[in-house]
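Hey,
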Amino acid sequence: MSIITCPFQFTSLSSNKINYVHPRFPRSTVVFRRVLAGAPPSEHSFRRYSLKARAQTGNNGPLEARDPLVVCFGEMLIDFVPTTSGLSLAEAPAFKKAPGGAPANVAVGIARLGGTSAFIGKVGEDEFGYMLADILKENNVNNEGMRFDPGARTALAFVTLRKDGEREFMFYRNPSADMLLEESELDFDLITKAKIFHYGSISLITEPCKSAHVAAVKAAKNVGVLLSYDPNLRLPLWPTAESAREGILSIWDTADIIKISEEEISFLTQGEDPYDDNVVRKLFHPNLKLLLVTEGAEGCRYYTKDFNGRVGGMKVAAVDTTGAGDAFVAGILYQLATDIDLIQNEDGLRNALEFANTCGALTVTERGAIPALPSKVAVRNAMLKTVA
C-alpha cells in the first residue's frame, strides 16, 4: 500500500484501518477503512465523521437504576418554519430551521425541566442527522440509542403557520432514515432501564420501523415499564385515513398513559363529539391508568378509572403552536416519572396538569419546537405570575 501526501496526519495503522488526524480538527481522530492505491479521506468526509463522533460521545454519564428515566422512541427531524405567519409555503419569504419530531421534543422537554431522558430513533448519516444528535447531547438527553443510516436522509418538514398560529405540514420522507430503523438496531438495555417508555404512531406507518416499534413496546412492557402513547395524528403521512385509524388503534390497548387531542377523538370515533365524556370513555381500555385530552389554550381534561375533570390553561399570545402538545407531555411525564402515584391522587394530578399546561402555553410564544421548550424555572415563574 502506498501513502499519499495529504493534509491528514497518519497516526496509526492496523490490519484493516488507518487513523488520521486533520490539522483543522486536531481534537478528533477518525478511523477510515484502508483504501488501496486511493486518495486519503477528504476534508468534507473528515468533517462529516467528526460531527458524528462528537454527537455520539459525552452523553450524560452512566444511567443509574435510581434515575426516573423516560425513554422516547420515534422520529427526529428538521422543521422549517416560516419567519412570517399567515402565509402559504409558496408565499413565505424565508424559513427558520428548527429541530423537531414529537418524541424527540418530549425527550428534550423532560431534560430541560430537570428530568432524565433518552431518545431512540434513526436519522440520516448526514450533517442534519449529526446536528440533531448533537442537539440532544447539548440538552442533556442521552442519545446512545440513535442510529445513523448511510442510505437515507434525515426527515424534513415544512410547517405553514396560519394567522391563528395553527399548522399545516409538508413532509419530505421518501423514505427518510427514521422509517428505516430495524429491530436489530434497538438498544434494549436502554429501553428496559426506563421508568416510562414514550412513543407516537408515526413509527407504525411503514416497515421496518413498525416492527422495531412493536418489539420495543413489548420489551418495555415485559419488564414493567409504564407505556406512554401520544398518537400525534399526521394524516398526510398515512396511505389512507382508514389505515391511520387502524394503525393508531392497533397498539391502543397496550398503553398505560394516553394523551390525545379533541381532533384525534373525533377522528378515532369517526365523528363523535369530543366534548362528550361518554364518547371519551369509549377510548378508555381496561388496562389504561390515565387518559389525557388536550384542548389547546383551554387546558386539558383527565380521566382515570376513579375520577375525571378539567384543568384550565394559561392564556398567552400564540406565535407558533409547534411542539405545544409535546411540551405538555414532557411536563406531565417529568412528574409521573418521579411519582407515579399522582395518578391515584386527584389533587396532586391536577397540580401536575397545571404545570404541564403551563409548559405547553410557554412553548407557543416562540417559533419552533425544541428552541421554545421551557425550563422548570420559567414554568414556575409563569405559574406564580398567574396566581399573583
